[in-house]
Amino acid sequence: xxxxxxxxxxxxxxxxxxxxxxxxxxxxxxxxxxxxxxxxxxxxxxxxxxxxxxxxxxxxxxxxxxxxxxxxxxxxxxxxxxxxxxxxxxxxxxxxxxxxxxxxxxxxxxxxx
Length: 113
Prior knowledge:
This protein is mostly helical. 74% of the residues lie in helices and 0% in strands. It folds into 2 domains: 2-79, no CATH class; 81-113.
């Protein structure tokens, strides 16, 4: 009896992963991967897209895939605070690391002056 009430509770809040949702997530991840392969194996080598445009596209698509994996397969989509912390905290650390590394490598210093 308690398992039935738990299932109803999860369905009311949309927290259950049904087959339809699983295949939707699979389709999204497969679609993003196919787009990445088309860019990497056809558009860039053929010269349709320059590499300096393709790299940011790869990064954005990879971040989108990472969001989907964390949100659905780690079940953090249903925990708003957990998902926000899993995304915001590492991004802040990465931005700080990039700033420290560019400062240490003297990237911002104009050596011609």
